[in-house]
Every structure is written in structure tokens, then in C-alpha cells.
Amino acid sequence: MIALEAIHKQFGDIEVLRGVSVRVPERSVTALIGPSGSGKSTLLRCVNLLELPQAGSVTVGANSLEFGAGTRHSRAEILAMRRSTGMVFQNFQLFPHLTVEENVMEGLVTVLRWPRDQARAHARALLDKVGMAAKAEAWPANLSGGQQQRTAIARALAPSPQVLLCDEPTSALDPELAGEVVEVLAQLAREGTTMLMATHDLRLASSIASDVVFLDRGEVVEAGPAQSLFGAPQRERTKQFVASLS
Ligand code: ADP
Ligand code: MG
């Protein structure tokens, strides 16, 4: 469902991604682990094209774009790719001036031009799914971090993206609130949502990811089934990093 091939990304002189390839099969979850600064967020941002790679190819479902010297893509192509993905951020990034329900409706109404009633009904159903229906009229500032993140997950799912990208979705939460977010993501995984998620949360990664990619200094050091990568890492750098996770 997601295929990243030989992705290169540099900011000025700094090469942040040095030929990264990752594949996420449909209806499966891949965890992206690695030290801070290894390029995890940048790689996720290359999937939804918030960052454009200098080289490589990005495929999400039927959308596929090649990057390299001389390639240019139309705004329509970039938007189509972006719309095939939903993104959940570490710090939730809800719109503070909109209620929970309005946050989930926003993209449907303003971008996809859905009628408000239809958008509201869809938002309600998604809020129900993430256990936030009772808080539909609440303001983000009055929610716990876990509630804000569950709302952000509902918002990311609203346009029915083909894949969900999560950038450290539990790392701003204390363990109890992280647990409720892990529960929601685990439920989505069981329902067959395709996900690529950067995380330092061993509980999150080991409970829902079938595959793990270990990124270090912009390169894939090791990738494989979660059980073997966590249980019997092959490379020394992987062993050290996995041992450092709690
Ligand atoms: P991670 O998410 O694994 O911590 P990031 O993808 O955020 O890593 O960052 C990888 C490297 O890229 C870091 O050295 C970071 O400083 C650099 N970087 C990320 N975004 C930018 C940017 N917009 N401009 C310049 N450097 C950036
Ligand atoms: Mg990051």
C-alpha cells in the first residue's frame, strides 16, 4: 500500500535521508524506530509530500510519483497523494477555535465540500469510534492530552485516507493517557487500517506493528517482522537501540 523507494532528502548540505526504502503492505502496521534526528519525521513528511524528496519514488495505493533531477509534478498530483494519507502528530495540532466535532468536520466541509449535516454525521460516527462522542461539543483546551490525540485521530481518518501516518502519537502523553491512544490505534489496526508510525513507545510498537524499520542517520539499518527485530536484532546498532527503548 505504501512503497518508498530510495528516498533522498537533504536540507541545504545536510543529507537527512540517504536512499531509504520502506514497504508497508495493505492492512498492516509498520513501526519506524530510531534515534532522535535519524530522519523519521522527515520520512513520514515525504509520504504525504509535506516535504518533497530530491530523489526516489513515493507510492500510496494507486498514486505513484517519481522524484529526481528535472522531474516536476503538478499541484493536482501532489494533492492527490496528500489526500490519500492522514497524519497524526506528536502534539495533536487541533484547531483551538473549533470544537471537537468541528475539528473532525473541518476538512470535509472546507476541502471536500461536503454538506455540513453529512460531515457532522460522519464526524459523530468517527468520534464514537475513538470514544469521544460524549465530548463532541467540547473545546480542545478542556480536554486531556489523550482525548486531544483521539480527536486528532478521528480528524485524520475523516476523509477516509488509504493510509494513516503517525508521528510519535504517544510521546507527549504520560503512560496512562498514552495507553488510551494505544488502544484506539490497536483497534484501527485490527480493523485493517494501513499505518506507518514513528514511535519510541515500545508498548505501542510491539503491540500493534507487524513490521519494524530501524532508521539511523538517514539509512535503514535493519528491517523485519516486529518479533524478530525486537526479540533477536541482528545488527549491533539495532541491539543497542532496542535495549535503550523502555
Ligand atoms: P526524527 O524525527 O527521527 O527525530 P527528523 O526527521 O525530525 O528526525 O530530522 C532529521 C534531521 O533533519 C535533523 O538533523 C533535523 O535537524 C533535520 N531537519 C528536519 N527538518 C528540517 C528542515 N525543515 N530544515 C532543516 N533541517 C531539517
Ligand atoms: Mg521526529
Describe the structure.
The structure is a single chain. The protein has helices at 40-47, 75-83, 100-110, 116-129, 145-157, 175-190, 202-208, 226-231, 236-244; strands at 2-11, 14-24, 29-33, 55-60, 63-67, 85-88, 163-167, 194-198, 211-216, 219-225. Helix 3 packs across helix 4 (116-129) and helix 5 (145-157) packs parallel to helix 6 (175-190). Helices cover 38% and strands 26% of the residues. It has one domain (2-245): Rossmann fold (3-Layer(aba) Sandwich). The chain is α/β, with parallel strands linked by helices. Strand 1 and strand 2 (14-24) form a beta hairpin. The protein contains nine helices and ten strands. It is globular and about 50 Å long. The strands form two sheets. It has a six-stranded mixed sheet, sandwiched between helices. The protein binds adenosine-5'-diphosphate and magnesium ion. Magnesium ion is lined by residues 40-41, 167, 198.
